[in-house]
Amino acid sequence: MMKFYPAALTCLLTVIMGSCATLVPQRTPPGVTVNLVPKGLYARKYHRPMTPQYITIHATENRSRGAGAYSHSQMLKGGALKGRHNAIGYVAWHFTVDDHSTYQSLPTNERGEHADYDGPGNRTSIGIEMCENRGNDRTRTIDRTARLVAWLMREHGIPLSRVVPHMHWRMIRHDDRRDLGHKKCPHFLLDQGRLGPKWQAFLSKVESYRRQMIL
After folding, report:
1. Model confidence over 136-188: pLDDT tens digits?
2. How far apart are CA 200 and CA 204, in angstroms?
3. Bond prior to 186 in cis (omega within 30° of 0)
4. What is the pLDDT of residue 175?
5. Does residue 128 form part of some domain?
6. How far, in Å, CA of 187 to CA of 58, rounded?
Protein backbone atom coordinates (compact mmCIF):
# COMPACT_ATOMS: atom_id res chain seq x y z
CA MET A 1 0.00 0.00 0.00
CA MET A 2 1.36 3.42 -0.94
CA LYS A 3 2.11 5.93 1.84
CA PHE A 4 1.57 9.65 1.39
CA TYR A 5 3.29 12.13 3.65
CA PRO A 6 1.31 15.32 4.51
CA ALA A 7 3.29 17.64 2.22
CA ALA A 8 3.13 15.22 -0.70
CA LEU A 9 -0.56 14.59 -0.13
CA THR A 10 -1.29 18.33 -0.13
CA CYS A 11 0.65 18.68 -3.37
CA LEU A 12 -1.21 15.77 -4.98
CA LEU A 13 -4.62 17.13 -3.98
CA THR A 14 -3.72 20.55 -5.37
CA VAL A 15 -2.77 19.01 -8.71
CA ILE A 16 -5.92 16.90 -8.85
CA MET A 17 -8.24 19.76 -7.93
CA GLY A 18 -6.52 22.13 -10.34
CA SER A 19 -6.79 19.59 -13.13
CA CYS A 20 -10.48 19.04 -12.44
CA ALA A 21 -11.10 22.78 -12.56
CA THR A 22 -9.49 23.05 -15.98
CA LEU A 23 -11.25 19.97 -17.32
CA VAL A 24 -14.79 21.18 -16.63
CA PRO A 25 -16.00 22.21 -20.09
CA GLN A 26 -18.47 24.91 -20.96
CA ARG A 27 -21.75 23.57 -22.27
CA THR A 28 -22.19 24.03 -26.00
CA PRO A 29 -25.61 25.22 -27.18
CA PRO A 30 -27.53 22.72 -29.31
CA GLY A 31 -26.70 22.90 -33.01
CA VAL A 32 -23.57 25.01 -32.49
CA THR A 33 -20.18 24.17 -33.99
CA VAL A 34 -17.26 25.26 -31.80
CA ASN A 35 -14.47 26.92 -33.83
CA LEU A 36 -12.68 29.05 -31.25
CA VAL A 37 -10.07 31.71 -31.82
CA PRO A 38 -6.86 30.06 -30.53
CA LYS A 39 -5.79 30.87 -26.97
CA GLY A 40 -3.02 33.43 -26.88
CA LEU A 41 -3.70 34.77 -30.37
CA TYR A 42 -5.62 37.66 -31.93
CA ALA A 43 -8.74 38.53 -29.90
CA ARG A 44 -7.66 35.97 -27.26
CA LYS A 45 -4.03 37.03 -26.97
CA TYR A 46 -4.83 38.02 -23.39
CA HIS A 47 -7.12 36.09 -21.09
CA ARG A 48 -9.98 38.46 -20.28
CA PRO A 49 -12.60 36.68 -18.16
CA MET A 50 -16.20 37.81 -18.26
CA THR A 51 -19.39 36.98 -16.39
CA PRO A 52 -22.10 37.52 -19.02
CA GLN A 53 -24.95 39.77 -17.94
CA TYR A 54 -26.34 40.77 -21.34
CA ILE A 55 -26.75 39.33 -24.82
CA THR A 56 -26.08 41.76 -27.69
CA ILE A 57 -27.56 41.16 -31.14
CA HIS A 58 -25.79 42.34 -34.30
CA ALA A 59 -26.06 42.05 -38.07
CA THR A 60 -22.88 41.45 -40.07
CA GLU A 61 -23.74 43.95 -42.85
CA ASN A 62 -21.69 41.66 -45.08
CA ARG A 63 -23.83 40.78 -48.10
CA SER A 64 -21.12 39.02 -50.09
CA ARG A 65 -22.08 35.61 -51.40
CA GLY A 66 -20.59 32.93 -49.18
CA ALA A 67 -20.17 35.25 -46.18
CA GLY A 68 -22.04 32.92 -43.87
CA ALA A 69 -21.42 31.77 -40.33
CA TYR A 70 -18.51 29.47 -41.18
CA SER A 71 -16.57 32.06 -43.19
CA HIS A 72 -16.99 34.66 -40.46
CA SER A 73 -15.79 32.20 -37.83
CA GLN A 74 -12.74 31.46 -39.96
CA MET A 75 -11.97 35.17 -40.27
CA LEU A 76 -12.11 35.54 -36.49
CA LYS A 77 -10.02 32.41 -35.98
CA GLY A 78 -7.32 33.72 -38.31
CA GLY A 79 -7.26 37.27 -36.94
CA ALA A 80 -8.50 38.78 -40.21
CA LEU A 81 -10.80 41.33 -38.56
CA LYS A 82 -8.72 44.13 -37.10
CA GLY A 83 -9.96 46.64 -34.53
CA ARG A 84 -7.33 49.35 -34.41
CA HIS A 85 -9.38 51.60 -32.13
CA ASN A 86 -9.92 49.02 -29.38
CA ALA A 87 -7.60 47.82 -26.64
CA ILE A 88 -6.70 44.42 -28.12
CA GLY A 89 -6.41 45.27 -31.82
CA TYR A 90 -8.97 42.75 -33.13
CA VAL A 91 -12.74 42.47 -33.49
CA ALA A 92 -14.39 39.38 -32.06
CA TRP A 93 -17.80 38.14 -30.97
CA HIS A 94 -19.06 34.88 -29.51
CA PHE A 95 -21.51 33.37 -32.04
CA THR A 96 -22.25 33.80 -35.75
CA VAL A 97 -25.60 32.58 -37.08
CA ASP A 98 -26.87 32.02 -40.61
CA ASP A 99 -29.90 30.17 -41.98
CA HIS A 100 -28.47 26.67 -41.52
CA SER A 101 -25.54 26.85 -39.08
CA THR A 102 -24.13 28.52 -35.97
CA TYR A 103 -20.44 28.82 -35.06
CA GLN A 104 -18.90 29.75 -31.72
CA SER A 105 -15.67 31.78 -31.79
CA LEU A 106 -15.21 32.77 -28.13
CA PRO A 107 -16.12 31.05 -24.86
CA THR A 108 -19.05 32.81 -23.22
CA ASN A 109 -16.94 33.48 -20.12
CA GLU A 110 -14.42 35.53 -22.09
CA ARG A 111 -14.79 39.11 -23.24
CA GLY A 112 -15.31 39.97 -26.90
CA GLU A 113 -14.84 43.16 -28.95
CA HIS A 114 -18.13 43.72 -30.73
CA ALA A 115 -20.21 46.43 -29.07
CA ASP A 116 -18.61 49.56 -27.61
CA TYR A 117 -14.81 49.40 -27.42
CA ASP A 118 -13.99 49.49 -23.68
CA GLY A 119 -17.57 49.96 -22.53
CA PRO A 120 -19.99 47.72 -20.63
CA GLY A 121 -21.28 46.14 -23.84
CA ASN A 122 -17.97 44.41 -24.45
CA ARG A 123 -17.20 43.87 -20.78
CA THR A 124 -20.50 42.20 -19.88
CA SER A 125 -22.28 40.85 -22.97
CA ILE A 126 -22.29 37.83 -25.24
CA GLY A 127 -22.13 39.02 -28.85
CA ILE A 128 -24.19 37.32 -31.57
CA GLU A 129 -23.83 38.26 -35.25
CA MET A 130 -26.61 37.42 -37.70
CA CYS A 131 -25.45 36.87 -41.28
CA GLU A 132 -27.09 38.61 -44.22
CA ASN A 133 -25.07 37.29 -47.16
CA ARG A 134 -26.72 36.82 -50.55
CA GLY A 135 -28.69 33.59 -50.67
CA ASN A 136 -29.18 33.56 -46.90
CA ASP A 137 -32.76 33.13 -45.66
CA ARG A 138 -33.12 35.99 -43.18
CA THR A 139 -36.28 34.63 -41.56
CA ARG A 140 -34.55 31.35 -40.74
CA THR A 141 -31.46 33.19 -39.49
CA ILE A 142 -33.58 35.27 -37.09
CA ASP A 143 -35.37 32.13 -35.89
CA ARG A 144 -32.09 30.28 -35.24
CA THR A 145 -30.79 33.34 -33.39
CA ALA A 146 -33.89 33.49 -31.20
CA ARG A 147 -33.43 29.81 -30.23
CA LEU A 148 -29.77 30.41 -29.38
CA VAL A 149 -30.60 33.48 -27.29
CA ALA A 150 -33.26 31.56 -25.36
CA TRP A 151 -30.75 28.81 -24.54
CA LEU A 152 -28.09 31.32 -23.45
CA MET A 153 -30.61 33.17 -21.26
CA ARG A 154 -31.43 29.97 -19.42
CA GLU A 155 -27.80 28.86 -19.20
CA HIS A 156 -26.52 32.14 -17.77
CA GLY A 157 -29.58 33.43 -15.92
CA ILE A 158 -29.95 36.44 -18.22
CA PRO A 159 -33.43 38.04 -18.27
CA LEU A 160 -35.19 39.11 -21.47
CA SER A 161 -34.75 42.76 -20.45
CA ARG A 162 -31.01 42.27 -20.96
CA VAL A 163 -31.28 40.98 -24.51
CA VAL A 164 -30.35 44.13 -26.40
CA PRO A 165 -29.50 45.33 -29.91
CA HIS A 166 -26.04 46.67 -30.68
CA MET A 167 -27.71 50.08 -30.79
CA HIS A 168 -28.21 49.85 -27.02
CA TRP A 169 -24.52 50.60 -26.37
CA ARG A 170 -22.81 53.97 -26.84
CA MET A 171 -19.61 53.57 -28.84
CA ILE A 172 -16.64 55.55 -27.48
CA ARG A 173 -13.32 54.61 -29.06
CA HIS A 174 -10.62 53.28 -26.77
CA ASP A 175 -7.66 55.22 -28.17
CA ASP A 176 -8.84 58.75 -28.96
CA ARG A 177 -12.10 58.73 -26.91
CA ARG A 178 -14.08 59.74 -29.97
CA ASP A 179 -17.82 59.35 -29.35
CA LEU A 180 -19.48 57.55 -32.27
CA GLY A 181 -22.91 57.48 -30.66
CA HIS A 182 -25.24 54.50 -31.10
CA LYS A 183 -24.87 52.33 -34.21
CA LYS A 184 -28.19 51.46 -35.88
CA CYS A 185 -27.65 47.74 -35.68
CA PRO A 186 -29.06 45.17 -36.30
CA HIS A 187 -30.65 47.29 -39.01
CA PHE A 188 -33.20 44.72 -40.20
CA LEU A 189 -34.68 44.38 -36.71
CA LEU A 190 -35.17 48.14 -36.38
CA ASP A 191 -38.03 50.30 -37.64
CA GLN A 192 -36.57 53.31 -39.42
CA GLY A 193 -33.50 53.06 -37.24
CA ARG A 194 -35.42 52.78 -33.98
CA LEU A 195 -36.68 50.06 -31.69
CA GLY A 196 -40.22 49.16 -32.63
CA PRO A 197 -42.46 46.27 -33.71
CA LYS A 198 -39.67 44.31 -35.43
CA TRP A 199 -37.53 44.24 -32.30
CA GLN A 200 -40.51 43.41 -30.09
CA ALA A 201 -41.43 40.55 -32.44
CA PHE A 202 -37.90 39.18 -32.09
CA LEU A 203 -38.06 39.38 -28.28
CA SER A 204 -41.45 37.63 -28.34
CA LYS A 205 -39.94 34.82 -30.40
CA VAL A 206 -37.05 34.52 -27.93
CA GLU A 207 -39.43 34.41 -24.96
CA SER A 208 -41.58 31.78 -26.67
CA TYR A 209 -38.56 29.50 -27.14
CA ARG A 210 -37.41 30.15 -23.56
CA ARG A 211 -40.78 29.09 -22.20
CA GLN A 212 -40.73 25.91 -24.30
CA MET A 213 -37.34 25.00 -22.80
CA ILE A 214 -38.55 25.18 -19.21
CA LEU A 215 -41.82 23.31 -19.65
Report:
1. 999 999 999 999 999 999 999 999 999 999 999 999 998 888 888 899 999 99
2. 6
3. yes
4. 85
5. yes
6. 8
**What pLDDT, on a 0 to 100 scale, did the predictor assign at position 21?**
34
Strands 54-59 and 171-172: unpaired
3-class secondary structure, 203: helix
Q: How many alpha carbons fall within 13 Å on the CB side of residue 109?
A: 7
Asked if the structure places residue 59 within a domain, the reply is yes
CB 70 within 8 A of CB 31: no
What per-residue confidence (pLDDT) applies to 11?
A: 39
What's the pTM?
0.87
**Within a domain: residue 4?**
no
pLDDT < 70: residue spans in the chain: 1-25, 215
- 9 inside domain: no
What's the pLDDT score for residue 18? 39
DSSP conformation letters of 112-144? -BSSSBTSHHHHHEEEEEEP--TT--HHHHHHH
Q: What is the rounded distance in angstroms from the CA atom of residue 141 to the CA atom of residue 66?
A: 15
Question: Environment class of residue 30 by beta-carbon count within 10 Å: exposed (0-12), middle (13-18) or buried (19+)?
Answer: exposed
Q: How many domains does the chain have?
A: 1
Task: Name the DSSP class of 177.
Answer: -
The residue type found at 176 is D
Report the distance separating Cα 115 and Cα 129, nearest Å. 11
pLDDT (0 to 100) of residue 31: 94
Domain that holds residue 169: 29-214
User: CATH code at 89?
Assistant: 3.40.80.10
